[in-house]
Amino acid sequence: MMRGLFVLLFAIFSFVVLGATAYANDRPGRVITVGAPATEIVFALGAGDSVIATDTTSTRPESVEALPKVGYMRQLASEGIISLKPDLIIAVEKSGPDNVLEELRSLGIPIVRLPSLDAMKNLPDAIAIAGAALGRDDAADALTQKVRGDIEGLRHLAEQERPSIMFLMAVGHGKPLSAGSHTTAAEIIDLIGGNNPMATFDGFKPVSSEIIAADQSDYVLVPQSTVDHYGGLDGLKTDPVLGLNKAVSNGKVLTVSASTILGFGPQSASEIREVAQSLHQQEQGQ
């Protein structure tokens, strides 16, 4: 009887172990991510241990900084990617160039391109697509549910006020950039309940010091990296160009991460929610 029980337990143990091994083998083990949102999604799904390299725009989570880089997301080179022997590439829609991606596909390397993450509405689908490719559908369902909750919270806050908010970003020694329609910054402004005074043009464009000085927006939205570049808000106020802006000089500055400006990822929804709450509190005089 003991022998029979032992055989039964051994069979059950073997089934569980072999099943778990087969399940694990279905998941890619050498993943390259291209684009900050793609990297954030893969790590948020619990697949960070399988990531062997990222592109240069990927900065979150902090652990990616130690990983090899395959170049800028729009200027990938096939040689470096091939040498890493990936079994999956998960890339944002803007990744390229196309001839490099086609070469990688011709070598049998699977490439999953996510829908455009310049629009928050595409984030749940992007999470689901990445989850399926990584064999992590359950994690994708849970993450999608959380993201949808954050987005719904934004809609509630956005109904309460419509102040004007201009986006500004310092770019090296060149003119600062502002954001027109069809940009992540424009959608952030809309999601947090603001009006974009630069909505008459499309995309990110340089703006002159005259336009910055003449702008009468209630607030400015800037990447946190821009504030850090000047050593804080006081440094931003003393900049000879950005300091000309009324909202900057009044300290009416809202910040968002550069990663979110590059595209919406899992952290973006909760991050934008915090910006919306900050705006609401300032509007209420708290």
Automatic annotation (TrEMBL):
Q: Name one Pfam family in it.
A: Peripla_BP_2
Show the stretches that span the lipid bilayer. none
Cite the InterPro entries for this sequence: ABC_Transporter_SBP, ABC_transptr_periplasmic_BD
Q: Which residues form the Fe/B12 periplasmic-binding domain?
A: 30-283
Q: What protein name does the entry list?
A: Fe/B12 periplasmic-binding domain-containing protein
